[in-house]
Amino acid sequence: MLSPAGRVILVSGANRGIGRAVAERLHREGYDLSLGGRDLPSLRAMTAGWDAARVHLARYDAADWASHRAWLEAAAQRFGRVDGLVNNAGMHSAMTLRAPDEAALDAIWAANCKGPFHLIHCALPHLEACGSGRIVNVASLSGKRVRNDHVAYNMTKHAMVALSHAARRIGWDKGVRATALCPSFVRTDMTATSTALAPGAMSQPADLAELVATLLALPNTASIAELLVNCRLEDMF
Questions:
Q1: Helix (H, G, I), strand (E, B), or coil: what is residue 30?
Q2: What residues form DSSP beta bridges with 10?
Q3: CB atoms inside a 10 Å sphere around CB 189
Q4: CB-side neighbour CA atoms (13 Å) of 105
Q5: What is the pLDDT of residues 175-215, one digit of tens each?
Q6: Is-catalytic flag, 153?
Q7: Rounded distance between C-alpha atoms, residue 110 and residue 114, angstroms
Q8: 37-65 average pLDDT score
Q9: 79, 109, 153, 185: which one is catalytic?
Q10: I want to staple 167 with a disulfide (CB 3.0 to 4.6 A). Which of 45, 89, 160, 178 is the partner?
């Protein structure tokens, strides 16, 4: 297993839900963290009392590609390296084929696909340079099968799984390993109004954080391409 000491991990959308749980777990593990999000005051409040020498905060807006490059450059300048990227920021949409909305489709495509795509592009030289770069894309079981009519969300999560395989392929020879993390329902703000499953039956953000920590620590010789996480029985899995 790779030691967290001295390793620098970037986490997008780190101020709540899965991203927050991941950041909290990685901080306890001893990683250096660069946390990106649009709500910087929330990130500052969340990290108050953390080891300031190991924490860097930056603006990340999925639709603003300039913010991606600025974040990567600032993190690399602060810590001298970048070893891992957790693409967690994203959004949901209940759009269906019978009621399309082009603006809403563009927004979810920017958040769930184009943002992670460009962030990986910016991070790749750093991840390759360290020889054991890690990418974890928080996708969804909705990227592996379709169980509802939320076509926009399902499309973007399928695309994120494809992006994970593309990153895995292009960076493999230089030690980069990418994983599509595909959970079902997770008890976060995104599922707060869902009636499909009782909150207590959902996976918890801390469960996903445990898995992310494991993925980041695995050696190059034990890489996991896709990690499917069930909280209920799935016919396909």
A1: coil
A2: 34, 85
A3: 9
A4: 11
A5: 999 999 999 999 988 887 888 889 999 999 999 999 999 99
A6: yes
A7: 5
A8: 97
A9: 153
A10: 178
